[in-house]
Amino acid sequence: MTVVKSTLSESARQVVGEALQGTLVDLLGLSLIGKQAHWNIVGPRFRSIHLQLDEVVDTARTYADTVAERAATLGVPPDGRPETVATTAAPQGPKEGWVQDTEVVGVLVEALETTIGLLRERITATAEPDPVTQDLLIGLTAELEKHRWMFQAEDWPRRA
Amino acid sequence: MTVVKSTLSESARQVVGEALQGTLVDLLGLSLIGKQAHWNIVGPRFRSIHLQLDEVVDTARTYADTVAERAATLGVPPDGRPETVATTAAPQGPKEGWVQDTEVVGVLVEALETTIGLLRERITATAEPDPVTQDLLIGLTAELEKHRWMFQAEDWPRRA
Amino acid sequence: MTVVKSTLSESARQVVGEALQGTLVDLLGLSLIGKQAHWNIVGPRFRSIHLQLDEVVDTARTYADTVAERAATLGVPPDGRPETVATTAAPQGPKEGWVQDTEVVGVLVEALETTIGLLRERITATAEPDPVTQDLLIGLTAELEKHRWMFQAEDWPRRA
Amino acid sequence: MTVVKSTLSESARQVVGEALQGTLVDLLGLSLIGKQAHWNIVGPRFRSIHLQLDEVVDTARTYADTVAERAATLGVPPDGRPETVATTAAPQGPKEGWVQDTEVVGVLVEALETTIGLLRERITATAEPDPVTQDLLIGLTAELEKHRWMFQAEDWPRRA
Amino acid sequence: MTVVKSTLSESARQVVGEALQGTLVDLLGLSLIGKQAHWNIVGPRFRSIHLQLDEVVDTARTYADTVAERAATLGVPPDGRPETVATTAAPQGPKEGWVQDTEVVGVLVEALETTIGLLRERITATAEPDPVTQDLLIGLTAELEKHRWMFQAEDWPRRA
Amino acid sequence: MTVVKSTLSESARQVVGEALQGTLVDLLGLSLIGKQAHWNIVGPRFRSIHLQLDEVVDTARTYADTVAERAATLGVPPDGRPETVATTAAPQGPKEGWVQDTEVVGVLVEALETTIGLLRERITATAEPDPVTQDLLIGLTAELEKHRWMFQAEDWPRRA
Amino acid sequence: MTVVKSTLSESARQVVGEALQGTLVDLLGLSLIGKQAHWNIVGPRFRSIHLQLDEVVDTARTYADTVAERAATLGVPPDGRPETVATTAAPQGPKEGWVQDTEVVGVLVEALETTIGLLRERITATAEPDPVTQDLLIGLTAELEKHRWMFQAEDWPRRA
Amino acid sequence: MTVVKSTLSESARQVVGEALQGTLVDLLGLSLIGKQAHWNIVGPRFRSIHLQLDEVVDTARTYADTVAERAATLGVPPDGRPETVATTAAPQGPKEGWVQDTEVVGVLVEALETTIGLLRERITATAEPDPVTQDLLIGLTAELEKHRWMFQAEDWPRRA
Amino acid sequence: MTVVKSTLSESARQVVGEALQGTLVDLLGLSLIGKQAHWNIVGPRFRSIHLQLDEVVDTARTYADTVAERAATLGVPPDGRPETVATTAAPQGPKEGWVQDTEVVGVLVEALETTIGLLRERITATAEPDPVTQDLLIGLTAELEKHRWMFQAEDWPRRA
Amino acid sequence: MTVVKSTLSESARQVVGEALQGTLVDLLGLSLIGKQAHWNIVGPRFRSIHLQLDEVVDTARTYADTVAERAATLGVPPDGRPETVATTAAPQGPKEGWVQDTEVVGVLVEALETTIGLLRERITATAEPDPVTQDLLIGLTAELEKHRWMFQAEDWPRRA
Amino acid sequence: MTVVKSTLSESARQVVGEALQGTLVDLLGLSLIGKQAHWNIVGPRFRSIHLQLDEVVDTARTYADTVAERAATLGVPPDGRPETVATTAAPQGPKEGWVQDTEVVGVLVEALETTIGLLRERITATAEPDPVTQDLLIGLTAELEKHRWMFQAEDWPRRA
Amino acid sequence: MTVVKSTLSESARQVVGEALQGTLVDLLGLSLIGKQAHWNIVGPRFRSIHLQLDEVVDTARTYADTVAERAATLGVPPDGRPETVATTAAPQGPKEGWVQDTEVVGVLVEALETTIGLLRERITATAEPDPVTQDLLIGLTAELEKHRWMFQAEDWPRRA
């Protein structure tokens, strides 16, 4: 007897479950990366970017919750344990120790780009099996792309 | 030239820095564990514990931020990267997949107990080198001990 | 001369109008069922489920309003009169009189399942004629499926 | 063994229970009627009456909850199922389809009048057996009579 | 010269003063009982009832204030001193030490029943001498009876 | 054809209408008296009584509105024009010009006493013809008697 | 010895005192007129104008307080007693009894016009003796002229 | 080197960029038209429509911001300069000077219809190149169609 | 098997448990004393002290809850039953009946002094066995000493 | 028959009307310029200035509304149509496309300077014909001059 | 090259700059004086005046900020350093140590009088060179004169 | 007879009194320094640091109040008069006139460092005589050290 029965067919459940699990660890990774930069940033733009990073963390945390509960809703137990995040999250954060503000901007642009790239694929993959999940991923992508624009806009003129 | 100069002597800085770094990863671990249980719990007490877990996560997240910024304040760059959390956090969470409600209660009691045990040692260790940090750890211990009480109270009569 | 002119073609208007009218009565039915259980539930889990039911009623009432106004917007006068709800709403509620808490959980899982099943069909049906209405139904389905998960999670281990 | 024991004598419980059950269905009927008019009204006074109707619905919903919980409190399981509302609610709503604003005003004056008339009888009936319930019905009557005044005031000069 | 002159005749003042003084100590007793249970409850339903008890305490404290000020208003100095509460309050609380959750429910049902029983008598006694005080007692009874219903509903199936 | 039809019989309407009209002008008078004292008070207790008077004005204004709309609701057009207030309101205010704080206290005790005395009669008069209006007057009396207590309590030891 | 010493010369105090006293009674009159119309209005535009009138009353009450306290501040005890308002306020209100909505609009346009006309004179009169008072009167005039515009705009096409 | 790099292919970027730029100017135009009518409307329905217009302006301003930032996010610098709005916005507003209320309703129905018609085309055009932008346009269309319904509902019976 | 296991050694638990239990009854006593004075105070300073007493009651109630839950957290079931408060609370309240304002000030200074004196001893006693509890008692002492200062400041020049 | 009658003489109305119409278009222009820069700014100071620009837009929008309604109040129908803004607004915005942050600062300093220069003239022009309008323009100038200071302060050391 | 360019002519800038600098130090002085009295006051009126003083401090701090930023806006760097306040602020505070409540009232009346006297001169001085600054000083004077009235009203009957 | 009796021994009172008085003037000095920089800062980072400085001022003002009231509580009248602040506060502020943003950062780092250095000594000094005061100083130090970190972090790479 299944614990939580899915409203999807088994094959649809598998595709959508993978998309959600992948998104979950990317968002948890992003929330840890954002905080790491929030604490270790130094440089004249410290205060502005310190605050901006918390807005990325807010998006990541809020959507991580929504995405994980969507997985559970479809009968897929989500996995957000520390070891799973450490080994499977795609976006890369800053190295250990203090980080210069200009470098933080670059790290965030890339971490967001990685996450968005994977999300775009998942939007395509879930369109047919579950438009409800797709809609959730579309909303998340809109927010992350906006964050990416802001970091990119303040990365100009760009470091060669 | 040091990036952020400490208001403590070098030896005090080291002791306090270790206490804070240890506390930081334990709290980040606890926040991931709490969410993992929040998403995967099943059983008749689902709703009540589901909500209770988010209060633990709130405490863990808020204090993780305070603890990490305290480390930075003392000239110790905090390390809260996914891999550091995965390899050094002390509290243990639930296994992968759905978890029965009674089991969640037990997991939380133990995870909190582990974290509190280490905090009690750090309160002693920081008393002399930095009473400001000690006060922060005392406040955190008060909150976590209260959470432990609540889970323990609803764990009665206890499973043999 | 038409009272409210539709922005859709006549055939699209008919398909979408039916989907919205069907959803409206199901939601009004669900809101009455949820309240009936909210008032008549007894048993040790009374308080937790009593509160949970009001969250279902909130979803049902809020979306009933949105769905009915969407119908009016498309030139289809919505019908939410008591007799229409009584005779055409799909989800089934509890019988008259006090209801045991465990039974309430089962009734809700089924009532939500019936409603969601019909919504999944309407999402498909409205995709082409009116993506605006489809988006509304997708948002509603996401909320109802989350409610269903919660009742199902607390319905474990399930009654044989 | 009774599920919820009444604080009233059996004969008092019966009289008061009938008064509350009658009021419950009238209020649920009124809330559906109010929404039906809210969605289907047309005419130059659309916006003002559209908003005013939601205030009637608010009163009806809030008091339906209070009335039903009062019945349960007295050991009388309330019945607010769709079929009960459809067959036993006294106030009459508008016909299906768009309704002209002036007609809505007339329908509301009459629906409120019917409900108030029955409430006045129930205030008398409950005075002796349960002054606590009577006080609740008095408070409700005050609100509904105020709504009736407002609709009547804007119904002047009256249609012959 | 009287300190605060009553707006009632001397005989009315005496009847009403006794009703208010009796209600005051019962409510103060109830607020201490509710807190005692709130702190000492154990068992799987700990969290839900722990929260529910605070709602009883809120009602008791708010009305104790209103009742005492009503007495003062009528020229009757209210007596809510610890020794008066200990010796004259009617409702009985739990014994010293931890209390099992199921037992707490029973204790509250009874404590509320005792308080309500006396209030019903005071409603009758004050009707003629002071309808203003009677109205206050009616409002209080409505709230306490609702609390009693909730505890009773979750006390089902009842312990033999 | 009557503008606003009453839900009361003609004789009941007359009794209740008079009670409400009398209360309306007393409250409007009280609100002007309260403000007059609020502006003209002098003496060491200025600030405390200045604030206290605005609470009396709040009660008077809020209930004046409720009372007038209750009259309209019953088909009795309320009369709160300046000349009607000046010639028919019962409570007496301070004389023109600055007023000593101790005197303000005495003026308020008396103005409230006058108003309450008339209200007590109206509570009796409306009991039978309209319990809904009676309930409103009871609520108002409770508030005004509380204000009177406070002024009287600070009027001790009393001026001979 | 003067109770409250003015910061103005005696002649300035007199001119400004008269301007403020005149404004005070006009505003108190306006607040009573506004409420009288708020309660007695009938006709299809009842609800919209009923709400609009309360905004006029808000302006009148708030500024009456400011104006009276400004007088006191300058050593001029303000006179807002019922009889003073009845005999000296300039704006004229509606006659006793129900008033048709269209007539209310006309009454308000005229009452506001009268008040504004006098205020314009007082702005000129206070410019030299006390620019602080003048600034207050300018702010009040801005608000009243805005109210007048709104009533005038809805009075079009105008009754011949 | 591009200032803000798009996450879309160049051809997709072009199609979506045009859709967003067109929507931006239409919304800025609509916000100016809405305010123009808000200020110049006269007639008995002035107040109700005056308030309703500000809700249209709110929608237009909020979405103009979202749409413009979405364009920037995709690497397309948005153009909302006065001259661009004046020359390229599609919806037509009222003529200069006072406008009768009935005419305002007609102007708004048409301005909204024009904007919605173009949005429906853009929803189709963006479906394939960028579902994230499409979702934004769908949400906007839902809001504008609701506004159109309300103006149309109060435009009945319609001017021949 | 212990119900709630302490994080302290048995000897530490005993010392800290006594300190917390003693503080609990003192605070509950203080909250009843504060209310008793709040209701029975008379004299020209009635209003100011009446309000001030509620701030003492707020402190007492809030900390009573924190202190009792800290005891439970350490495995010590707190005892706040009416009879325990009546027989073991240290601070003394006013006698029965009306109390003159100047006397209330003196009673409060002394009741606070008694409570603070015992707290100072408990701060010393808990320093070593449980710095977490000590920190709680320090925070409480800070608040009570501030209340004592305020009553003492308004007790000057002091009664011989 | 005039639609909205002015409280000013015809000549005063003309002078004041021109001042208000000129201010209106300048503010609408400023709000569009501010948004254009808000969306197109790039460079390291992106985030800080992006937020700052929205505060300018808030001032511009709020005062545009006040200024336009003041014109209507004086019988002058305001003209804020897109074409009027495009052709008559004085302040100049940035060119099309991305704008470097340092350049945005310069553009804003100048746009504000232009607007303030004209406002200073209008303050002089309206002093005599309408001090009420003058007061409004003074308040607006204070806000715009503060914005100009802030942009100028961050424009230092200035570009040669 | 000037840091912040003034919108005033050089001579106007000088006059207005002096008025603002003088006002700034007076307000900073007043805020320190108000707090000094707030902390050191003793006597039966302690609580009421303690609270009242914080309202004076609020006014002083809020306007100090506005006045200093107005100076900067006009190109005049404001000077609010401790030594400047100590040597140039006009109002005089209480002597060191505890101060009797009656004495505090007198000190405040005088400190406010001194500040207002200078402000009245500055209102005259700035009228021509900068009506924007004058308007700010008028608003400040209105608030300070109101504070002065309140202290003066409670200073009656006055100490010989 | 002492005005406010201390709960400390005379020698403890002296040590703690000095620590509090020293902290008070440092905080008042810091609040004036912070505002001076807030008003006079210029340079590209103007806006960000302008806002950051107000957060320092908030901390300084809030703790100045707490520290001064703690002194009064212990029977030590606090001295925060302008001349005392000017002559005894330890932290040094910026020179008169505009200050470049980079220089402001340096000034704040040093002013905070001076204040924190003295606080660290006072934490040691008060530990034994009054742990309640020590706890207050620990809380303050935590906040100021956090501010110092933020200014230091944005001061990197540091000026040689």
UniProtKB/TrEMBL annotation, chains A, B, C, D, E, F, G, H, I, J, K, L:
It comes from the Bacteria. PANTHER family: DNA PROTECTION DURING STARVATION PROTEIN 1 (PTHR42932:SF2), GENERAL STRESS PROTEIN 20U (PTHR42932). GO terms for molecular function: ferric iron binding. Belongs to the Dps family. CDD domains: DPS (cd01043). InterPro entries: DPS_DNA-bd (IPR002177), Ferritin-like (IPR012347), Ferritin-like_SF (IPR009078), Ferritin_DPS_dom (IPR008331). Pfam families: Ferritin. Residues 18-153 form the Ferritin/DPS domain. Transmembrane segments: none annotated. Residues 76-96 are annotated as: Disordered. It comes from Streptomyces liliifuscus. This is DNA starvation/stationary phase protection protein. Signal peptide: none annotated.
